[in-house]
Amino acid sequence: MGENRGRTAVLDQFDRKIDYLRISLTDRCNLRCVYCMPEEGVEWQPHDAILSYEEIARLVRLFADLGIRRVRLTGGEPLVRRGVAELIAAIKAIPGIEAVYLTTNGLALQEQLPGLLAAGLDGVNISLDTLDRAQYAAITRRDALPQALAGLEAALAAPGLTVKLNCVPMGRNDNQLPALSELARDRDVSVRFIELMPIGLGKTLSRRTEAEVLAILEPALGPWRPCAAPPGAGPAHYGSFPGFRGTVGFISAMTHSFCENCNRARLTSTGFLKTCLQYETGVNLKALMDRGADDAALLDAMERAIRQKPAHHHFSTPSAAGDESHSMFQIGG
Ligand code: SAM
Ligand code: SF4
């Protein structure tokens, strides 16, 4: 184990190269964002249903053999799980893995960032829907804006760390969108607006499209002009406003489908390899490991699942058999 066996990268049935893996470390979280998690009554996965760090490292070694080059750790809130820095160090040591990123609400970032950086973390995406403390408490159901901002400032102060900010425009935070964009005026940061997707609780809430967000931003900030995407931009497209140092981007799954260029797969905290956000198709790798599968059997199962990745989501058409029934915190957003 450990050496890259030099297999060529797997192409799916539509010739897309899958080189990016998002790994959910937990379904738990210290916030309860209205579009993601119910306030009460969540049934958490039992401890033994969750992949151990050893199992994750074993799977990432195999994924690297299949051409995965970049890994993002997410959740739930990844930083509520102990020992994330050790996991990052273990993944960074795997031949073929070029970068490890984290998506977090930022609450524990100020405290944990030194260890994460020492382990080799390459970039962090911080979710922040508002800069207004009362609105933050209403959206996340926790009065935790000061911790999130402390996490953001710590990340921005870390030399060499790529920092991006994710905001979901929902109508109720319309008045905050210019101020959130302003964070990119003097800082080398990407602020991205993510169209709310009809997944889990996201099915029930109002949303803003990219065009609606631009209609709010441009009168306040001037014309938004597209610019070249930074490396590893994924599904986001980027632009900027006059005088801005950083960028303002959009991830618009609803109005600007990017499925034809999709390069990603997801591993849930319970070990399910999921190849499209909207479908339940994939393979349960933890079940295979629990039954004693060897590396060759796991590789074959992974390769088969990746090849069968669906062509695209169908968010704008009625739901169908095989659709994902879980929320983002269970899938790994
Ligand atoms: N807890 C971490 C965080 O909030 O960054 C990581 C997990 S969270 C599920 C990842 C991202 O998914 C967050 O930026 C969140 O805003 C986004 N998200 C959750 N539900 C969503 C939905 N229905 N549509 C679009 N984005 C969603
Ligand atoms: Fe937690 Fe992230 Fe979901 Fe908010 S979006 S409830 S921070 S997992």
In short:
With 333 residues, the protein is an alpha/beta fold.
Give your account of this protein's structure.
With 333 residues, the chain is α/β, with parallel strands linked by helices. 28% of the residues lie in helices and 16% in strands. The chain is built from ten helices and twelve strands. It has a twelve-stranded mixed beta sheet with strand order 7-8-9-6-5-4-3-2-1-10-11-12. α1 crosses α9, α2 runs parallel beside α3 (109-119) and α3 packs parallel to α5 (145-156). The chain starts with 19 loop residues before the first strand and ends with a helix. The structure holds S-adenosylmethionine and iron/sulfur cluster (SF4).
Can you lay out the helices and strands and say which pair or pack?
Layout (H helix, E strand, L loop, with lengths): L19 E5 L28 H13 L4 E5 L9 H9 L6 E6 L4 H11 L3 E5 L5 H8 L4 H12 L5 E6 L9 H6 L7 E5 L15 H12 L3 E2 L10 E4 L6 E5 L12 E4 L4 E3 L7 E3 H6 L4 H13 L20 H4 L2
Parallel strand pairs: 1-2, 1-10, 2-3, 3-4, 4-5, 5-6, 6-9
Antiparallel strand pairs: 7-8, 8-9, 10-11, 11-12
This protein binds S-adenosylmethionine and iron/sulfur cluster.
S-adenosylmethionine binds next to strand 3 and helix 10.
